Amino acid sequence: MIIDCHGHYTTAPKALENWRNRQIAGIKDPALKPRVADLRISDDELRESIETNQLAKMKERGSDLTIFSPRASFMAHHIGDFEVSQAWAAICNELCFRVSQLFPDHFVPAAMLPQSPGVDPKTCIPELEKCVKEYGNVGINLNPDPSGGHWNSPPLSDRHWYPIYEKMVEYDIPAMIHVSTSCNPAFHTTGAHYLNADTTAFMQCLTSDLFKDFPTLRFLIPHGGGAVPYHWGRFRGLAQELKKPLLSEHLLNNIFFDTCVYHQPGIDLLNTVIPVKNVLFASEMIGAVRGIDPETGHYYDDTKRYIEACKILSGADRQQIYEGNARRVFPRLDAALKAKGQ
Ligand SMILES: [Zn+2]
Predict the structure, then answer these.
(1) What is residue 104's predicted lDDT score, i.e. its pLDDT?
(2) How many helices (H) and strands (E) does the chain have?
(3) What per-residue confidence (pLDDT) applies to 120?
(4) How far is the CA of 194 from the centre of ligand 1 (A)?
(5) Which fold does the domain 3-11+42-339 belong to in CATH?
(6) Ligand 1 centroid from CA 199, angstroms
(7) CA pair distance 195, 179, nearest whole angstrom
(8) Can you tell me the distance from the alpha carbon of 282 to that of 221, in angstroms, rounded to the nearest whole number?
(9) What burial class does residue 52 get, using C-beta atoms within 10 Å of its C-beta: 0-12 exposed, 13-18 middle, 19+ buried?
(10) Active site residues
(11) In its UniProt record, which GO terms are filed under biological process (predicted)?
(12) Half-sphere exposure (CA, 13 Å, Cβ side) for 28?
């Protein structure tokens, strides 16, 4: 089985975006604020938006199952207050749940949280609980910077985040560390802010003893870990100077990287530096980079091709990257598959 651990509902029907625009307009003028019931998207519309997009590409490229969360750049936690984020997260999570019900063999949901700048993350727990208990979510996306590029939240190692971690441990779910749209013009959203955040999250964990407090907490750092694998020597050297244990014990029981790296040399480097047990297959399609690479004639985000062509991986390594590691990092996914005899 090939599990893609990083997919977003980037192709949701236009009505969703229209509702969001009205919600945003309603922040300034409450008369414009839409009701949740104003958003009507039929099952047929959901089905079409998936069948002609993600599912078609999964079949073309040969992946079976996608861990599917709301569109990351649309989370935009910096907009409005907690109430705004709460209504928006509930709607987006419900849509991903409905997709998972319509295509139970191909999509399993992961939740966005109703984070809001300066608001205690504890407020996210009711939505998190609903998504796990009622919607069968197997993971969450945690935004380390709900300000959208101004980085004024405490680091991920701070006790500020502990209520979320306690729930993650209780439910045995991992978090993908995933920022949203940058509203800071210095950082391009998908070209800089995302990759900066991946690198920043790793370093926040490195300088801390977070995983001593939460030995079973698991973070999935997307986009191949940002700059982390490329600069592994720098991180090892910094850990050494900080008198931290070797990174293999300090971080690699808890931190995992996905394969959303869009060229062969990048995937080769990721797999040269990071142990196979810490790498999970992902493509993030249909996402940030949708074009065809003129050097190869294939889509940049067709990442399975790079895993297949990576010469240092054995067949058993690929099986771990495609399936085994995802089952280990997402135990609720493993349990759901086993319940279906898979
Ligand atoms: Zn993403």
Answers:
(1) 98
(2) 16, 11
(3) 98
(4) 8
(5) TIM Barrel (3.20.20)
(6) 15
(7) 9
(8) 11
(9) exposed
(10) 284
(11) secondary metabolic process
(12) 4
d(CA 177, CA 229): 16
Q: How many residues does the chain have?
A: 342
- pLDDT for the residue numbered 180: 98
Burial level of 45, CB count in 10 A (0-12/13-18/19+)?
Answer: middle
110 neighbors 139 (Cβ within 8 angstroms): yes
Banded pLDDT at 274 (limits 50, 70, 90): very high
pLDDT of the residue at 128? 98
Q: Which residues contact 291 (CB under 8 A, 6 or more apart)?
A: 299, 300
Calculate the CA 136 to chain-centre distance. Answer: 16
Q: What is the dihedral of CA 267, 272, 273, 275, to 10 degrees?
A: 100
Q: Which residue has the tokens 């003129």?
A: 294
- How far does residue 283's CA lie from ligand 1's centre (Å)? 9
In the numeric block, which tokens belong to residue 181? Answer: 């749209």
Beta partners for residue 299, in sequence order: 292
Predicted local confidence at residue 221, as pLDDT: 98
Query: Residue 72 has what pLDDT?
Result: 97
Ligand 1 center to 300 CA (angstroms)? 15
CB atoms within 10 A of CB 290: 11
CB 240 within 8 A of CB 266: no
What pLDDT is stored for residue 307 in this prediction? 98
